[in-house]
Amino acid sequence: MNSSAAKFRKRIYGLPEQAARVCLVCPDFKYSIRNGELVGTGSMQPTPTCCCYRFRLRYRIGKNPKLWILDPALRCRDDQSNIPHTYRQDEPCVFRPGVDWSDEKILASTVIPWLAMWLMYYEFWHATGEWLGGGEHPEVPTDSNETDHQSDEEEIS
User: Fold this and answer.
1) What is the 3-state secondary structure (H, E, C) of the chain?
2) Are 39 and 32 in contact (CB under 8 A)?
3) Contact at 8 Å (CB) between 130 and 82?
4) Cβ–Cβ under 8 Å, residues 120 and 128
5) What are 8-46's pLDDT values in tens digits?
6) pTM of this structure
7) Are 42 and 26 in contact (CB under 8 A)?
8) Surface-to-core class of residue 127, CB atoms within 10 Å of its CB (0-12 exposed, 13-18 middle, 19+ buried)
9) Distance between CA atoms of 18 and 111, rounded to whole angstroms?
10) What percent of the chain has pLDDT over 70?
11) Contact present, 113 and 42 (Cβ < 8 Å)
12) Cis peptide preceding 72, ω within 30 of 0
């Protein structure tokens, strides 16, 4: 079998490179890399008419990235009991784990823009009551054990 594709291995981007690329699209992104995990906070304003949101990102190679909205807090509409496409009140579902994300992808060109798009649809939903973002919402991933995501905020400088 003489396949030229077999000669090339997939590239996995290291945590320092992933963090540097996120800093290019979110210049205020502050992060630390400890024990094989990238943890950082940054902000984004999806459109000029949207709020500016502060978010937290956690990523370990071999795991799905996790995102949380820190400020302003996400909130339900008065006429609905849940925020669409969230795992928890502050954790947006921006991709299908095991389908849309792999370690060969770059956070800054996938997960970060997906979060911006999710936030835009969140604001549309708040205004209209209809989720216009489409998508599938899977069950809570089994590796979603980072419920203490705010406890390490002081560590990032």
Assistant:
1) CCCHHHHCCCCCCCHHHHHHHHHHHCCCCEEEEECCEEEEEEEECCCCCCCCEEEEEEECCCCCCEEEEEECCCCCCCCCCCCCCEEECCEECCCCCCCCCCCCCCHHHCHHHHHHHHHHHHHHHHHHCCCCCCCCCCCCCCCCCCCCCCCCHHHCC
2) yes
3) no
4) no
5) 778 899 999 999 999 999 999 999 999 999 999 999 999
6) 0.84
7) yes
8) exposed
9) 11
10) 82
11) no
12) yes
The phi and psi torsions of 44 (rounded to 5 degrees) equal -155, 150
**Tokens at residue 12, please?**
């996995």
The residue behind tokens 């400088």 is 157
How far out from the chain centre does Cα 1 lie? 40
Q: CA 59 to CA 66: how far, in whole Å?
A: 6
